[in-house]
């Protein structure tokens, strides 16, 4: 949300153009638990270990619950966890213009939307704070965008942010710069087995969909905290897999439109990176060893209550959804 977004009142609920280039063909020289024979071999291992993609329906939403009002522009939908146990905001990143509305819809229980700074991702900011408080499935929370400054937010439920549940509105752009996701991803993946697994899965999923495979390539990762970089990479990769599995969500100009998905169940990719991270933790294999990542995230505060600004995305009005949902879920 913009740094000057209005405060929201929460109540309980009844129930760009893409830049050119790619990541390249290799992961780097780091060690990994995954077979080096190629993407297909790795993906087969991932699917065998963690399961195949699933098709899911979301029950209809109930009444709207929290709001800072409604803007005069486009409404962008962000799903707060598509299903129980999936700790992601969907989309992970979006571009919004002044006057647009960002509508957060809960797909699972016990999550928050809480504004943070870029440096302290897992702590509430003191600068024009907005927070939903911890809410459950079908809760709705809206914010109107009053400027296009990058805005970071996270889930304040303990440990969720540290596991990668954070998102960005109007993310910084690093088109063809060293700090872009496309340039930093190989090093991150080479040092993190979970990121490498997610990259292999996404590369296989997007092999016939260049637009989906390039999503997020220009996002600026250079100023993100070291600990968060693998999680940011995995959020980007998960988004790519979703777009490839639901190609009707991408328009000819590369922007993303949820409406074609409203009448059908949507394919939700397997969260291979998260599963690999858990597997590595259980086996004692380090899952996050990115260069210089000596710092750790702060404890999450439990809340109560291309050419545009983000050249990584397809359009100033992108709204990527990573959730299996029926039409009623999007209706107020």
Largest sheet: 6 strands, mixed
Q: Structural class, please?
A: alpha/beta
Shape designation: globular
CATH topological fold name: Immunoglobulin-like
Name of the level-1 CATH class: Mainly Beta
Describe this protein's structure.
The chain has one domain (9-330): Cupredoxins -  blue copper proteins (Immunoglobulin-like), CATH 2.60.40.420. Helices cover 22% and strands 13% of the residues. The chain has helices at 39-50, 181-191, 193-205, 210-214, 229-245, 272-283, 327-330; strands at 9-10, 54-56, 66-67, 75-80, 89-90, 93-94, 101-106, 114-116, 140-144, 151-154, 166-169, 266-268. It is globular. The chain starts with 8 loop residues before the first strand and ends with a helix. Mean pLDDT is 72; it is low at 1-36, 56-64, 289-296 and 298-332. This is Phytocyanin domain-containing protein.
């Amino acid at each position: 949300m913009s740094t000057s977004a209005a405060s929201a009142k929460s109540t309980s609920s009844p129930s760009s153009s893409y830049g050119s280039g790619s990541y390249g063909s290799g992961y780097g020289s780091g060690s990994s638990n995954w077979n080096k024979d190629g993407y297909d071999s790795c993906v087969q291992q991932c699917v065998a270990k963690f399961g195949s993609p699933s098709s899911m329906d979301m029950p209809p939403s109930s009444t709207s619950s929290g709001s800072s009002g409604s803007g005069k522009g486009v409404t962008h939908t962000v799903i707060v966890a598509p299903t129980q146990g999936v700790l992601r905001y969907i989309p992970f990143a979006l571009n919004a213009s002044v006057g647009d509305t960002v509508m957060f819809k809960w797909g699972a229980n016990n999550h928050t939307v809480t504004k943070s700074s870029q440096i302290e991702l897992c702590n509430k900011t003191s600068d024009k704070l907005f927070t939903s408080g911890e809410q459950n499935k079908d809760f709705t929370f809206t914010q109107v965008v009053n400027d296009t400054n990058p805005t970071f937010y996270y889930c304040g439920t303990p440990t969720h942010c540290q596991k990668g549940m954070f998102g960005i509105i109007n993310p910084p752009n690093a088109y063809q710069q060293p700090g872009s996701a496309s340039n930093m991803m190989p090093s991150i993946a080479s040092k993190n087995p979970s990121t490498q697994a997610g990259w292999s899965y996404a590369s296989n999923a997007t092999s016939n969909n260049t637009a989906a495979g390039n999503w997020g390539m220009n996002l600026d990762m250079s100023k993100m905290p070291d600990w968060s970089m693998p999680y940011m990479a995995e959020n980007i990769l998960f988004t790519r897999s979703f777009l490839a599995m639901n190609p009707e969500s991408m328009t000819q100009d590369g922007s993303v439109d949820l409406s074609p998905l409203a009448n059908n169940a949507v394919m939700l990719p397997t969260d291979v990176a998260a599963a690999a991270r858990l597997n590595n933790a259980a086996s004692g294999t380090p899952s996050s060893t990115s260069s210089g990542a000596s710092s750790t995230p702060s404890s999450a505060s439990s809340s109560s209550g291309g050419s545009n600004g983000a050249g990584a995305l397809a359009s100033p009005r992108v709204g990527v959804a990573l959730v299996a949902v029926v039409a009623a879920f999007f209706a107020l």
